[in-house]
């Protein structure tokens, strides 16, 4: 049987998002890469709807998968202490085999907050996703990816080191592996992300003074005390699970609702004031997001998509600066068949 079906639930950006979800999913992107992404933002489409087609249609379907996809997305999220985060993300997908795709994602992020306004390129994500099996009402896929830092996470403002919440890159390499399954209108995915090494962040609120008579006093010191230390940050590994239900509204219009729990497996580690590496308490644990999205196929070539994520449970300390109150994403994609 030859049939090409939609590649299952795909992993940011995560938003970045920051095309990332509201933990958020780091722009390393365990929630927005390849087969870990939302069902409504999947990277490939089929010529037929496998949830409704009969067996004859499946047996006689021709391969009509897109060869290239170019996508431009914009995202807004609200970060820690009211930081406004705007992101533009360029994505490209190329089909290299019948059921295999090579994906690229590069974000540009702008932060506006009390400690200053900064902007710059985010981390580059390269992923390979492959459909293992596709058939009537079922599909299974996997993704492997690498996230390449575009900086060292050492941005400063007016001579002061900025916390990770203001950094456009996490400053360390990451690898991601994930699997997904879709059964009728339900989608599930499970992903693991591993971070390698330390970054070069130099922010540490320990020792900051609030005494206006101290020569080291600064008007923004009280604001700085609200952020976790990030000196030479070593992030822990993440597990992400996504479950979604898809609803078909009209022929070209669909929507999904779902849950996205993420679990940080280890505590984050930083360099202490004495030069030794220390683990930060309360940096591991669960973040639970509720997600939703909509997809509208304008025509054969153009697709419009929208996604939102809202956290209900968050880790109390996020040294990597990925805490989000809300994430919203709009994107427009052009497909070449």
What does this molecule look like?
This protein has 337 residues and is mainly beta. The protein has one domain: Beta Barrel (Porin), CATH 2.40.160.40. It is built from 2 helices and 19 strands. The two termini are 21 Å apart.
Compile the SSE list and pairings.
Blueprint: E1 14-15, E2 17-18, H1 55-60, E3 68-79, E4 84-97, E5 100-113, E6 116-121, E7 124-135, E8 138-148, E9 156-157, E10 160-161, E11 173-183, E12 186-196, H2 221-224, E13 238-250, E14 253-264, E15 269-271, E16 277-279, E17 285-297, E18 302-313, E19 324-336
Parallel strand pairs: 1-2
Antiparallel strand pairs: 3-4, 3-19, 4-5, 5-6, 5-7, 7-8, 8-11, 9-10, 11-12, 12-13, 13-14, 14-17, 15-16, 17-18, 18-19
Characterize this entry briefly.
With 337 residues, the chain is mainly β. The chain has helices spanning 55-60, 221-224; strands at 14-15, 17-18, 68-79, 84-97, 100-113, 116-121, 124-135, 138-148, 156-157, 160-161, 173-183, 186-196, 238-250, 253-264, 269-271, 277-279, 285-297, 302-313, 324-336.
